[in-house]
């Protein structure tokens, strides 16, 4: 029964997901961001580890995009039209490394070993 329900709702879900992704991409382009820039390393240890593994030039570019977006947002402004058409919010730089980190975490969990980069919180 559930597989039939999934088959019936999948086209609607995919249509809504495509529409949402396009709208979000347009909003991100307005500020010069990419989808991967929305990943928060403070909330997800895997994202923090994936960012640590990226080359320094990619990190610098990410930080510049985030600073520019913050500046534009505070000014209630957007990118100029000539820069707006050059934006590529769908271009990914983090997902491949993030999948690798998550696969390593799953493998360590199967082996019963803790992740070497797990945060410890003290009260």
From TrEMBL:
GO terms for cellular component: mitochondrial inner membrane; respiratory chain complex III. It is a peripheral membrane protein. It is found in: Mitochondrion inner membrane. The keyword Amino-acid biosynthesis does not apply. One of its GO terms (biological process) is mitochondrial electron transport, ubiquinol to cytochrome c. It comes from the Eukaryota. Keywords: Electron transport, Membrane, Mitochondrion, Mitochondrion inner membrane, Respiratory chain, Transport. Its main location: mitochondrion. The keyword Cytoplasm does not apply. Pfam families: UCR_14kD. Belongs to the UQCRB/QCR7 family. Component of the ubiquinol-cytochrome c oxidoreductase, a multisubunit transmembrane complex that is part of the mitochondrial electron transport chain which drives oxidative phosphorylation. This is Cytochrome b-c1 complex subunit 7.
């Amino acid at each position: 029964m559930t597989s039939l329900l999934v088959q019936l709702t999948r086209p609607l879900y995919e249509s809504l997901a495509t529409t949402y992704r396009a709208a979000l991409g347009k909003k991100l382009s307005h500020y010069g961001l990419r989808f991967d820039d929305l990943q928060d390393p403070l909330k997800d240890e895997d994202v923090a580890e994936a960012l640590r593994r990226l080359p320094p030039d990619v990190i610098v570019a990410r930080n510049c995009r985030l600073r520019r977006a913050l500046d534009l947002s505070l000014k209630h402004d957007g990118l100029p039209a000539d820069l707006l058409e050059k934006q590529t919010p769908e271009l990914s730089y983090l997902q491949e490394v993030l999948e690798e980190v998550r696969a390593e975490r799953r493998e360590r969990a199967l082996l019963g070993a803790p992740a070497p980069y797990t945060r410890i919180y003290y009260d």
